[in-house]
Amino acid sequence: MEPESPEKDRGLQWDCNRDPNAKYEYLDHTADVQIHAWGDDLGEAFEQAAVAMFGYMTELDTVEELMEQEIEVEGEDIESLLFQFLNELLFVFSAEPFFIARRVRITEFDKENFKIKATGYGEVFDLAKHPQGTEVKAITYSNMQVYDGKNGKFEVFVIIDI
Length: 162
Fold this sequence. Notes:
- This protein is an alpha+beta fold.
- 23% of the residues lie in helices and 37% in strands.
- It has 3 helices and 8 strands, in the order αββαβαβββββ.
- The strands form 2 sheets. Strands 1, 2, 6, 7 and 8 form a 5-stranded antiparallel β-sheet that branches. Strands 3-5-4 form a 3-stranded antiparallel β-sheet.
């Protein structure tokens, strides 16, 4: 018997890999969801984790790139930088104007001083246009992993509280 997918659990009938450029997947985790994202470099892995988070909240193919939202974050180490990056993007979704990104680009990634500047491209979330997925309540540090080129892999694992 095949395990139920998180997408099926939340009632959305779509696959995150419909976009051939998607470099993320949702992994089962008790009561939460683990995002596994990867890229050609660590910046792309972070970007893909952000897109995966937004993709869990709605079907991204319904989101148009009508506006931009810039963010800047700092961390104490690479894990806290990933946490702060995703947390800030979750904040801009949770506060007016309820911005949801279809795409996220990191414009500056300082891995020595743990700083990121990024831009999200999307629009204001609208229930009349965007199917409601699962609410993401918080980003967690639980089992967070960041691989910065070890064995040629740039990938992140992060659990989101739903």
